[in-house]
Amino acid sequence: MTDESDISFANANIRASTICTIVLGFAADPLMRWSWPDPRQYLRSMPQFIDACAGRAFAHGTAYVVGEVLGAALWLPPDVQQDEEALDGIMAQSLRPEITEDMAHLRRRMAEHHPREPHWYLPLIAVDPNWVGKGVGALLMRYALEQCDEQGMAAYLESSNPENIPFYQRYGFKVVGEIQHGSSPPLTPMFRTAC
Question: pTM for the whole thing?
Answer without folding.
Answer: 0.94
